[in-house]
Amino acid sequence: MIDLEEIITKEKKRIVQVNKVPLNNRKVNAITIMDSGTVDGWAKNGEIVITSSRMMPEDMGVAKQLLAQLVEKGVVALMVKPYSPDGTGEFPQVLIDYGNQLNFPLFKIEPSATYIQILNDINALLLENRRINKMADLDLDYLLKSNSASDKDFDFVSGLKDINLYELNVRVTKIVLGETPKPGERLSIQFDLVNQIQAFFDRVQREGRIKTYFILESSNGATAISFFSNDQVELPPHDRTPYTRLIHNVHIPRFIIYEGVSNAYPAKKIHRCYIEASFGVEIAQTLDWSDRPVFYRDVGLWKLVQKLSRAQDSRLYPIEMDQILEDDEMFETVKEFFRQNESIKKASQAMFTHPNTIRYRLTMIYKQTGLDYRLTNDKFLIYIAFIKKLLNRN
């Protein structure tokens, strides 16, 4: 993908904007020719559409409807050849005004320019951009998954941003869709998702919270890597604010969004960031926490429990606790008790039952295991047993 603003800058001799819509933060992934007066079946998210006056509806009401349909499809901009045979015609003012109303960029193609020139130039820019991004993706994927990255491994991506990334700090954010999109809708959904994530990090960058960022796409989401200086490091709990804003602002119709966020580390520990963000999003999916970012520091204990549960002779609590949690009713009770910050009243409300019912079930744990939910140490052991059971279920 490439910025529309960059394309227009390089094509300014052939293309002139006719309305006053800002061009920043508009990502282009293709260009296509409109050869009919309807958008069904061909207009796609992220495209620039070019056409001639002959293809535009003569009725301004129908033409306005066409613009609205292009916007609905996620088209980035419309470029039209002049409205008269000699090329001197003006773009209809009614469409210019409507384009402003829709926040949709409209352009006039200069009479001397041809479709082929514009298509070739823009496709060349897109091809070069894809080639560079592919190389960057390969380097970043290596950095994320290698535990032995050196400063030299950052050279190419540092050159793209004209910053020595190795000297900065890094944080990884992993965004995952609740399910993998179907093949026919995958490209459109991925483009929409990445566009929204880019818009968020563009804003964070303008706010001075980070130096730069990269986004890597996956089959069911994306991984964002943000770099920042020591002066830009935000300590807990203040670092939670922007990532809460992210998950609340990313909307993909029909899809649930999960977000895992790593701690901040020096760039050389980018692999650790990736492991933390991946575990965070795994827990978010496990508990269906789609309304909040899951920071690794919130669930780091869970990682420790996972490691201990895989080791032999690591029994931390009575074996009867595992047997109790086999019962779905008891499992849900313990889950809701901790989910509601150990509030019996809130747990009972969430489970639509009486508080005494919750107390009775928790007391049954004490009678069978000796673990008292009112004592800090015992409560901690019940929590560990619950985490282990939850992770094993998934």
List the helices and strands and how they pair.
Elements: E1 2-3, H1 4-10, E2 15-17, E3 27-28, E4 30-33, E5 47-51, H2 60-72, E6 77-80, H3 93-102, E7 106-109, H4 115-145, H5 155-161, E8 169-177, H6 183-206, E9 212-218, E10 221-228, H7 240-249, E11 257-261, E12 265-266, H8 270-287, E13 293-295, H9 296-310, H10 320-324, H11 328-339, H12 344-350, H13 355-369, H14 376-393
Parallel strand pairs: 4-5, 5-6, 6-7, 11-13
Antiparallel strand pairs: 1-3, 2-7, 8-10, 8-11, 8-12, 9-10
Kindly describe this structure.
The protein has 394 residues and is an alpha/beta fold. The protein folds into 3 domains: 2-121, Udp-n-acetylmuramoylalanyl-d-glutamate--2,6- Diaminopimelate Ligase, Chain: A, domain 1 (3-Layer(aba) Sandwich), CATH 3.40.1390.20; 146-306, Reverse transcriptase/Diguanylate cyclase domain (Alpha-Beta Plaits, 2-Layer Sandwich); 315-393, PucR C-terminal helix-turn-helix domain (Arc Repressor Mutant, subunit A, Orthogonal Bundle). Helix content is 49%, strand content 15%. The protein is built from 14 helices and 13 strands. The strands form 3 sheets. Strands 8, 9, 10, 11, 12 and 13 form a 6-stranded mixed sheet that branches. Strand 5, helix 2 and strand 6 (77-80) form a beta-alpha-beta unit. Helix 9 crosses helix 14, helix 11 packs across helix 12 and helix 12 (344-350) crosses helix 13 (355-369). The protein is elongated.
Spatial extent as radius of gyration: 27 Å
User: Strand content of the residues, in percent?
Assistant: 5-15%
Question: Which fold name corresponds to the CATH topology of the largest domain?
Answer: Alpha-Beta Plaits
Apparent shape: elongated
String of helices and strands: EHEEEEHEHEHHEHEEHEEHEHHHHHH
The CATH architecture category of the largest domain equals: 2-Layer Sandwich
**Main beta sheet: strand number and arrangement?**
6 strands, mixed
User: Could you tell me the mean pLDDT?
Assistant: 91
Distance between the termini: 36 Å
Q: Total number of β-strand segments?
A: 13
Secondary-structure-derived class: alpha/beta
